[in-house]
Specification:
It is built from twelve helices and 22 strands. It is α/β, with parallel strands linked by helices. The chain folds into two domains: about 240 residues, Ribonuclease Z/Hydroxyacylglutathione hydrolase-like (Metallo-beta-lactamase, Chain A); about 140 residues, 3-Layer(aba) Sandwich (Rossmann fold), CATH 3.40.50. α11 links the parallel β20 and β21. α5 runs parallel beside α7, α8 crosses α12 and α10 packs parallel to α11. It is elongated, with a radius of gyration of 24 Å. The model has no long low-confidence stretch (mean pLDDT about 95). The structure holds MU-OXO-diiron.
């Protein structure tokens, strides 16, 4: 599909992968976007696709190239959902030149055993002239890996942004946002950010600062729609999540074996509702998928976590969430804790220890109860909920 005069979309949709990175469910699939610039002086592919899709990917490339050779592959990012086809591309086009920075080219060798003959090593600010299109490379480390860079076309004002500004959700016929209803993609962008990039808030902010003087009229990321009308909204979504800016609201996450912690979670929700909190989301962590939980936590500024004591520690699904949060930039949140026990109180103590790393602002004291909940403990949970509204 042609995006502008010489820039073509040659990406593919994956509707069968169960979990992205082996971790994150994909109910609406995912696209691996790749772009082919068919220019006067040279042709260049920007990123590739997951190798499982190589036959149809090659067909798309050949349909654009016709009899011409492929001169360059620009590698913005080496994660195999984008670099997976590199070795096969080299087999098909033996003279193609791989373009990347020093770290990229080391990874090309490390992942695919490709030699560094016929490569072009670029540094921050270097450019490549394809004839009509003049490309400039901007190194944006840790967005998402250390080698990550973006490629800006100074002629057409297109930013080939890699994972940044991307989202889950396969493309359903349309590619460019001007032609489609983009509604389903925004929540998928937030879920993608929280799951994949949530650890890298500071580097994302650095990357955004670096791009601020570019006149960006089209964003071609590696996942999801091409942004033309919604460039600002896509950038703003990443800016919001990476800066820790949240909407008022409370996410209540709990694990429960026999319903006591669940009843305390419901009471926290009731208390927050009484106190006027409008956005309240409750997740039973044995049921909710982690990426949806994380996206809600990135959206809303308050969090309450409840856990039973289990085998002398935390209930496993609660501990799993806390570990994920320790590896993400969420320290501006307010946190309430509630935990039960039968003979040895460990849940609250352990959650407080996790907060030493998460560094959220504690709301109330850790609320602890022994064995079954009572009218009194439920009222204490409602009081904790009310604190979030007050
Ligand atoms: Fe879509 Fe970091 O790979």
């Amino acid at each position: 599909m042609k995006l502008t005069g010489k820039v073509h979309y040659v990406g593919v949709n994956d509707r069968t992968k169960h979990r992205f990175e082996g971790l994150w469910i994909l109910p609406q699939g995912v696209s691996y976007n790749s772009y082919l610039i068919h220019d006067e002086k040279a042709t260049a592919l920007v990123d590739t696709v997951d190798m499982a899709f190589f036959p149809e990917y090659l067909e798309k490339i050949k349909a654009v190239l016709g009899e011409r050779a492929l001169d360059y592959v620009i590698i913005n990012h080496m994660e195999p959902d984008h670099s997976g086809s590199l070795a096969l591309i080299r087999q098909q086009f033996p003279n193609v030149k791989l373009v990347g920075n020093k770290k990229t080219l080391e990874m090309v060798q490390g992942f695919y055993g490709l030699d560094t003959e016929n490569t072009l090593c670029v540094a921050d600010g270097d450019s490549l002239d394809l004839g009509h299109h003049k490309l400039r490379f901007h190194l944006t480390p840790m967005l998402h890996w250390p080698e990550t860079m973006m490629t800006y076309c100074e002629t057409s004002h297109i930013l080939f942004s890699g994972d940044a500004f991307g989202c889950f959700g396969a493309l359903n016929g349309h590619v460019v946002d001007t032609e489609m209803d983009t509604t389903p993609y925004w929540s998928e962008m937030e879920r993608y950010y929280a799951a994949i990039l949530g650890k890298f808030g500071a580097p994302v902010q650095t990357g955004l600062r670096k791009l601020k003087d570019l006149d960006i009229r089209m964003i071609c990321s590696t996942h999801g729609p091409v942004w033309v009308n919604e460039v600002n909204r896509a950038v703003d979504t990443y800016r919001r999540f990476s800066s820790g800016t949240t909407t008022p609201g409370l996410v209540i996450c709990y694990g429960s074996m026999y319903g006591n912690t669940r009843r305390m979670a419901e009471a926290v929700a009731e208390g927050a509702a009484e106190a006027g909190v409008r956005n309240i989301v409750v997740h039973d962590l044995s049921v909710s998928q982690p990426s949806y939980v994380l996206a809600d936590i990135f959206r809303y500024g308050s969090l309450a976590i409840g856990s039973p004591t289990y085998n002398g520690g935390l209930f496993p699904v609660v501990e799993d969430l806390l570990k994920r949060l320790c590896g993400r930039s969420v320290s501006k949140h307010r946190l309430g804790i509630f935990g039960g026990f039968t003979w040895s109180g460990q849940a609250v103590k352990n959650m407080l220890a996790y907060n030493e790393k998460m560094k959220m602002e504690l709301v109330g004291e850790g609320l602890e109860w022994k064995q079954g909940v009572t009218a009194e403990t439920l009222e204490q949970a409602r009081a904790l909920g009310r604190l979030f509204g007050e």
